[in-house]
Specification:
heterodimer, A: 66 residues, mainly beta, 1 helix, 36% strand, globular, B: 263 residues, alpha/beta, three-stranded parallel beta sheet, 35% helix
């Protein structure tokens, strides 16, 4: 399936839900926050949130800042 | 408070949370996250500011801030650095709230990449959006007492005027305005941005600020850990001097040793 992740077009094997994308990317879901098509997905919903071709996903985390 | 003989601890409270340390430190510009954590520790900070950015998808194993500067040890204050509109700020902080699970945030809406001074009209608009969304907002602002009051009336949890442009290290540029802002405010006032060295922090606290927020003054020092220690002492010294009440300035000398009984 085709997704736009953090602004980059990426192709994945079919993914059942957002949690599968997080692990396919090698990320720890406890340390990130995610938007799907500009809507925040609560962490508790990653395992239930289905993905569709063309979804725009933003995955962010805390970094150093002032 | 270190060295204090007063019985009651000298604390300050923002958005219902009470802190002992009056030094908030940023987490940017350090050599690495380990140095960053050591500096926050040396500063005695209880609150650290953090930014929110996209994860690096090409290298998910890169070190993460939260593995060094731990959210169970420090209160994270997510910022909106890099945001130029209210909508960008709200989007960023909603994500930060999801990432961290708390609603105390630092709003900064910038106007220009050259001086990074706040766009106050947009800052006030963003503040209202955030408050409507349930956030507790500490607001980076210009040293304008008129806008500071508008922010407070709109529900800001703290007023945080810039001493000087972010990262400039030039110290407090307008003591008169800072004094007016402190005098009128019923919420905490923090100098945020522009502190360069320990004496700047002392002056901010002597002026009556509730706390000081800094990043580059520590991270940009030749020895950041040592400067973090200096800043910790500076903030304590300035606060104690403010509470003690300084002596009156005089035009002429006043001998410290009695003039009577000289041989």
């Amino acid at each position: 399936m085709n997704l736009i992740v953090n602004g980059e077009a990426r192709t994945f094997e079919p993914l059942p839900h957002l949690a599968a994308l997080v692990s396919a990317l090698g990320l720890d879901g406890r340390k990130v926050a995610i938007e799907r098509n500009l809507e925040i997905v609560p962490r508790s919903a990653y395992g239930k949130m289905a993905l569709a071709d063309g979804d725009r996903i933003e995955i962010v985390h805390f970094i150093g800042g002032g | 408070m270190d060295g204090s003989t007063h019985a009651a601890p000298d604390t300050w409270t923002v958005a219902g949370r009470t802190f002992t340390s009056r030094l908030i430190v940023g987490t940017g510009k350090y050599k690495d996250y380990a140095e960053n954590a050591a500096a926050a520790d040396a500063a005695g900070a209880e609150i650290v500011t953090v930014a929110l950015r996209r994860v690096n998808l090409s290298d998910p194993s890169q070190p993460m801030l939260v593995d060094y500067v731990k959210p169970d040890r420090f209160t994270f204050l997510p910022n909106t650095a890099g945001c130029f509109t209210g909508e960008e700020a709200v989007r960023t902080l909603r994500l930060a709230r999801e990432a961290g699970g708390w609603d105390l945030v630092k709003l900064e809406v910038l106007s220009d990449t050259k001086h990074l001074l706040p766009d106050m009209e947009e800052t006030l608009r963003a503040l209202k959006l955030l408050i409507a969304d349930g956030f507790q907002v500490m607001v980076y602002c210009s040293d304008d007492p008129v806008y500071a009051l508008k922010l407070e009336e709109a529900g800001a949890a703290a007023i945080m005027p810039a001493a000087a442009p972010i990262g400039s290290g030039r110290g407090i540029q307008n003591f008169l305005n800072l004094g007016l802002i402190i005098e009128q405010a019923k919420v905490p006032v923090l100098v945020d941005a522009g502190v360069g060295t320990a004496s700047d922090a002392v002056l901010a606290m002597e002026a009556g600020c509730d706390a000081v927020l800094m990043n580059t003054a520590i991270a940009g020092a030749k020895d950041p850990i040592r400067m973090a220690v200096a800043m910790k002492h500076a903030v304590i010294a300035g606060r104690e001097a403010f509470l003690a009440g300084r002596m009156a300035k005089k035009s002429y000398a006043d001998p410290s040793s009695p003039m009577a009984g000289l041989i």
